[in-house]
């Protein structure tokens, strides 16, 4: 039985946000420009509301400007596209985030394609996805960026390590695989059709849960000593009628097996927001400088 180390994403994110705030102050001093982040939210999804609130507060705490656009869920696609174009043209806005998922009547790819790639702080535009894939400077998706920061802090070099990413989404699994490759890890992307998923996971020195299925990854899927990053944030019912947050990994089962693991909450989630602020500052520097 080994002692499983907790990877404190919340503390790491606080340190990162403090560093960003220092850089923002220097940037404002040097240029007279305040980096600005615009967030577009359609409808009233309660989980998204928490995220948007935290984001707005932390943006202001970092010394940046926060512009929130809350639109009714019924807003037409043309109106959303018109808003995105206005934000593209607004010199006070350096980062644009359109909260996903969007209502079914909106073509999310059309919206993402309309965001100026230079302001695409989510890194979801095909230009940024393509630039990441071929190794050019890109705005990189925030959650994968935060995962790799935690991994490098925990492990040092990732070179030659066997990484298994469970989940193939455009927002986490695929870009995370690109970033891990860039760090010279050996990368497998596993998904719902993967044969003998437990055995594939047991090969991993680095195991990433990014599927959005509560506690799907069991303790005996983890190689002893592996580093586990849990991207899932799933709200599940408690016996008393309330709810609690759990990850994609069975956290209690992982104790004594994993070498290190991120908790949920307090792991990857806070890193996502910190990386969003980092990307907004990067975008502002490139747009102004
Ligand atoms: N265009 C777009 N970009 C996103 O990055 C994006 C999105 N849409 N849609 C929604 C998801 C969700 N997401 C979270 C980020 C941080 C926390 C977070 O900070 N969670 C804390 C607190 C959780 C809680 O207490 O509710 C934690 O895990 O410790 C959660 C969720 C970003 N998303």
UniProtKB/TrEMBL annotation:
Pathway(s) annotated for this protein in UniProt: One-carbon metabolism; tetrahydrofolate interconversion
Keyword flag Oxidoreductase: yes
PROSITE patterns to which the protein is assigned, alphabetical: THF_DHG_CYH_1 (PS00766), THF_DHG_CYH_2 (PS00767)
Recorded GO CC terms: cytosol
A Pfam entry, by short name: THF_DHG_CYH
Reactions catalysed according to its record: (6R)-5,10-methenyltetrahydrofolate + H2O = (6R)-10-formyltetrahydrofolate + H(+); (6R)-5,10-methylene-5,6,7,8-tetrahydrofolate + NADP(+) = (6R)-5,10-methenyltetrahydrofolate + NADPH
Alphabetic keyword roster: Amino-acid biosynthesis, Histidine biosynthesis, Hydrolase, Methionine biosynthesis, Multifunctional enzyme, NADP, One-carbon metabolism, Oxidoreductase, Purine biosynthesis
BP-aspect Gene Ontology terms: L-histidine biosynthetic process; methionine biosynthetic process; purine nucleotide biosynthetic process; tetrahydrofolate interconversion
Superkingdom, taxonomy of origin: Bacteria
E.C. code: 1.5.1.5, 3.5.4.9
Complex and partners: Homodimer.
Assigned protein family: Belongs to the tetrahydrofolate dehydrogenase/cyclohydrolase family.
Function: Catalyzes the oxidation of 5,10-methylenetetrahydrofolate to 5,10-methenyltetrahydrofolate and then the hydrolysis of 5,10-methenyltetrahydrofolate to 10-formyltetrahydrofolate.
Name of the protein this chain belongs to: Bifunctional protein FolD
Organism, scientific name: Ancylobacter tetraedralis
Name of the gene encoding the protein in the UniProt record: folD
């Amino acid at each position: 039985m080994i002692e499983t180390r907790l990877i404190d994403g919340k503390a790491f994110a606080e340190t990162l946000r403090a560093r960003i705030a220092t850089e923002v102050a220097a940037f404002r001093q040097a240029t007279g420009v305040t980096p600005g982040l615009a967030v577009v939210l359609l409808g009233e999804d309660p989980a998204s509301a928490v995220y948007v609130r935290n984001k707005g507060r932390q943006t202001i705490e970092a010394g940046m400007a926060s512009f929130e656009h809350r639109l009714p869920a019924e807003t037409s696609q043309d109106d959303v596209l018109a808003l995105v174009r206005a934000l593209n043209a607004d010199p006070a806005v350096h980062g644009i985030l359109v909260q996903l998922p969007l209502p079914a009547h909106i073509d999310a790819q059309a919206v993402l394609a309309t965001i100026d790639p230079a302001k695409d702080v989510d890194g979801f535009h095909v230009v940024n996805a393509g630039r990441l894939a071929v190794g050019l400077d890109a705005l990189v998706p925030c959650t994968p960026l935060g995962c790799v920061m935690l991994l490098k802090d925990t492990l040092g070099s990732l070179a030659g390590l066997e990484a298994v990413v469970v989940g193939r989404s455009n927002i986490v699994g695929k870009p995370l695989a690109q970033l891990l490759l860039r760090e010279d890890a050996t990368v497998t992307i596993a998904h719902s059709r993967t044969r003998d998923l437990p055995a594939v996971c047991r090969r991993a020195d680095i195991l990433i849960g990014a599927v959005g299925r509560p506690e799907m990854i069991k303790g005996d899927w983890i190689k002893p000593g592996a580093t586990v990053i849990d991207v899932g944030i799933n709200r599940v019912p408690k016996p008393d009628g309330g709810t609690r947050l759990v990850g994609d990994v069975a956290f209690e089962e992982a104790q004594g097996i994993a070498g290190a693991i991120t908790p949920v909450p307090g792991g990857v989630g806070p890193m996502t927001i910190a990386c969003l602020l980092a990307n907004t500052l990067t975008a502002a520097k490139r747009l102004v400088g």
